[in-house]
From TrEMBL:
One of its GO terms (biological process) is fatty acid beta-oxidation. This is enoyl-CoA hydratase. PANTHER family: TRIFUNCTIONAL ENZYME SUBUNIT ALPHA, TRIFUNCTIONAL ENZYME SUBUNIT ALPHA, MITOCHONDRIAL. Residues 513-608 form the 3-hydroxyacyl-CoA dehydrogenase C-terminal domain. Residues 336-509 form the 3-hydroxyacyl-CoA dehydrogenase NAD binding domain.
Length: 712
């Protein structure tokens, strides 16, 4: 829910959701559910999990549901309506806390069997059932809705089965109920990607029968109770009737479709890293319309995935995200953002803030840069915002500011100009005459220590680093950079601002490169040295991808921008007292001087096609051991630097460090974070590997003394 939507919701709180009768003909008292019948004997079952801001299907919630359904069987209602009382949505899925650290597959199977028995009671109820869904309906929440005969969406609702993002597949009937309801290829796409579908797409797919406004809920329930909603016809295999469904009910066609699905999954996830999507494809491929058999297979496979290393590490990542989100709570008092610098970073920061409901003014010395940024924003809104109203509102909030007048009324001014100390200082001197009292000045510098800039800021106590990562619209992390004169109030507001725009703050101390870029540089620098040694760019990238990185360091350097890489390299080398870091290669400077700065320029270390994809040469004959050695040579210096950052207090704790690297760089999520990986592999093993590399390649691989703390 965006900031503006949340304010409207609060204002209209008394008439937000139609929840049926409040006291009439109550059917019992429960902790997490409210159940009552209206005058037409329609039972309204409302989920409102106690003590939580969002509904999740904990074991206690499911046990209460089972008890309620058992009582309803004894005194049948005319119909049952299932709703959520939470403003954010229907349900966010299972309660992951119930499964954290559970590694006994047999125990998981028994728990899942209990949950299935409860949901089966709903699915086989002798009275018609209807789920009315608003907001998010995800994972187990969608599986609960699939257990009903009918589903109606309130405008704005979204649906998804994102379990694959946790190293799992649906485990409460989704693997067989969704393909039986809608086009099975569409169903598998939803489950294999974890992507959500909005209300109109859900209606088109047949996932819901109608999309209505909240004010029409009473009428919809009346029509439903009168038999106005009809179930889809099913063929004998259990699929919605249609030529594609009938064709895919045949073994050969299903086998071919499954083979193609595996091919698509292999493009983005290796089986040994992410086994869940492959297990999901196998479940679907071998389904034969026998729901009981499909249920048993799903439970068994789900238990295997959940007890495995990948799922447990990704569950850890889930809780890392939750911890970082908790730091973003509170009131920022920021309604107006002014961004100075309409380049790739500044323009995209402005684009994102407006998409999240904040008023944004965007200025630049070059009017063409502002126009280009607004053009990119329009394309982004067309692609990512699902309604014309939302697209219009975002564009209305993003205002070109050719004269920079927005500075005087903004609550936060974000500077995203060239990465030069002198340019930034000159700008700050000008801002001192224009910014309103109490406004925050934030720099998006990627590497410059704030101590080099703060004296030029209008008010050092309200000067802070707010460092976004490229691409801004995709990377969740924002480094909140503190220095010794910034106030606690400013840090709290800056972190809350991240919450306003759905970003994850990581509080770090000002130091050259801060945390993420400081750790990335040794990784990228080693890749550059390998290029100098004659190793193919594609081989270098493949070694990192085989380790689990979303992209290799060469492609990443192009994505970050070779100009930014060069500036960070210079900054970090100048700040290295022992001069152990390698100097930037001469060819890197030549690329930057010629304007070949990477993906944003269409050419860098790779050339790029019109879709922004790198043009790579094929070289598939690399030996796995060779790739593993290459990966160690690049990844271990990164880990070594992260240990140094932890020892120096650049970051407060290992969890923030691991979260920052995952959400800021995409560090192999299935490994649970770089330091979590180091502990799993063994600190002694990593120190020994670093020492071997030091003997062969020099002092830059010397194990940091901080490893000793991790051993204790």
């Amino acid at each position: 829910m965006s900031v503006s939507e949340a304010k409207v919701w609060e204002k209209l709180k008394s008439r937000n959701i139609e929840l049926g009768p409040v006291t009439d003909i109550a059917d019992g008292e429960y902790r997490h559910w409210k159940i009552a019948r209206d005058a037409g004997d329609v039972a309204w079952l409302v989920l409102d999990r106690a003590g939580e801001s969002a509904n999740t299907l904990s074991e206690e919630v499911m046990e209460e549901l089972g008890e309620i359904l058992e009582n309803l069987d004894k005194k049948r209602p005319k119909a049952l309506v299932l709703r959520s009382a939470k403003p954010g949505g229907f349900a966010a899925g299972a309660d992951i806390r119930d499964f954290k650290g559970v590694r006994d597959a047999r125990q998981i199977e028994e728990r899942m069997k209990d949950a299935h028995r409860i949901l089966d009671r709903l699915a086989h109820a002798s009275y018609p059932t209807l789920a009315i869904v608003h907001g998010h309906c995800l994972g187990g929440g969608l599986e609960l809705a699939l257990g009903c005969d009918h589903r109606i969406a309130i405008a704005g609702a979204t649906f998804g089965l994102p379990e694959v993002l946790l190293g799992l597949h649906p485990g409460l009937g989704g693997t067989y109920r969704l393909p039986a309801l809608i086009d099975p290829i569409e169903a598998m796409t939803m489950m294999l990607t974890g992507k959500t579908v909005h209300d109109r797409k859900a209606r088109k797919l047949g996932l819901v029968e109608a999309v209505i406004e909240e004010r029409h809920v009473d009428k919809a329930v009346s029509d439903f109770a009168a038999g106005g909603l009809k179930k889809q016809d099913r063929n004998t295999a259990g699929f919605a009737s249609g030529w594609k469904e009938r064709l895919l009910g045949l073994g050969p066609a299903r086998g071919l479709a499954a083979k193609r699905m595996r091919g698509e999954v292999e493009k983005r996830a290796r089986r040994e890293h992410y086994p869940a999507p492959y297990a999901l494809i196998e479940l679907w491929e071998h389904a034969n319309g026998d729901m009981e058999r499909a249920q048993k297979a799903e439970i068994r496979s789900f238990a295997e995935q959940l007890s495995g290393e990948t799922a447990q590490n990704l569950i850890r990542v889930f809780f890392l995200r939750e911890k970082m989100k908790s730091k973003a709570k509170g009131e920022s008092d920021i309604a107006h953002v002014h961004v100075i610098g309409a380049g790739t970073m500044g323009g995209d920061i402005a684009t994102w803030c407006a998409a999240r409901g904040l008023k944004v003014t965007l200025s630049d010395l070059q009017p063409k840069a502002i126009a280009a940024a607004v053009g990119r924003a329009s394309k982004f809104y067309d692609k990512k915002l699902h309604s014309g109203i939302a697209q219009r509102d975002a564009l209305d909030l993003l205002m070109p500011d050719f004269n920079g007048v927005g500075v005087s009324t903004a609550d936060i001014v974000i500077e995203a100009v060239a990465e030069k100390v002198e340019i930034k200082k000159a700008l700050y001197a000008e801002l001192a005459r224009k910014m309103k009292p109490g406004a925050i000045l934030a720099t998006n510098t990627s590497s410059i220590p704030l101590e080099d800039l703060r004296e030029s800021a209008p008010s050092p106590e309200r000067f802070v680093g707010v460092h976004f990562f490229n691409p801004v619209t995709q990377m969740e992390l924002v480094e909140i950079v503190r220095h010794d004169r910034v106030s606690d109030e400013t840090l709290v507001r800056a972190q809350a601002f991240c919450g306003d725009i759905s970003r994850l703050p990581a509080l770090v101390r000002s130091a050259p490169g801060f945390l993420v870029n400081r750790a990335l540089f040794p990784y990228l620098a080693e890749a550059f040295l390998l290029i100098d040694e004659g190793v193919a760019k594609e081989t270098i990238d493949r070694a990192a991808e085989r380790f689990g990185m979303p992209m290799g360091p060469v492609e990443l350097a192009d994505r970050v921008g070779l100009d930014i890489c060069l500036e960070v390299a210079r900054m970090l080398r100048e700040s290295d007292p022992e001069n152990t870091l390698p100097a930037p290669p001469a060819w890197l400077e030549r690329h930057v001087q010629s304007g070949e700065t990477g993906r944003k320029a269409g050419r860098g270390l790779y050339s790029y096609d019109e879709k922004g994809k790198p043009k790579k040469q094929s070289s598939s004959g690399d030996d796995s051991e060779d790739l593993s050695a290459l990966a160690d040579r690049m990844v271990l210096p990164m880990l070594n630097t992260l240990v140094a950052c932890l020892r120096e207090g650049v970051v407060e704790d290992e969890e923030t460090l691991d979260g920052a690297m995952i959400f800021g760089t995409g560090f192999a999520p299935f490994r649970g974070g770089p330091l979590h990986y180091a502990r799993k592999r063994g600190v002694a093993d990593i120190k020994a590997a670093l020492s071997k590399l030091e003997d062969k390649h020099g002092q830059r691989f010397a194990p940091d003394e901080g490893w000793q703390r991790l051993e204790n």
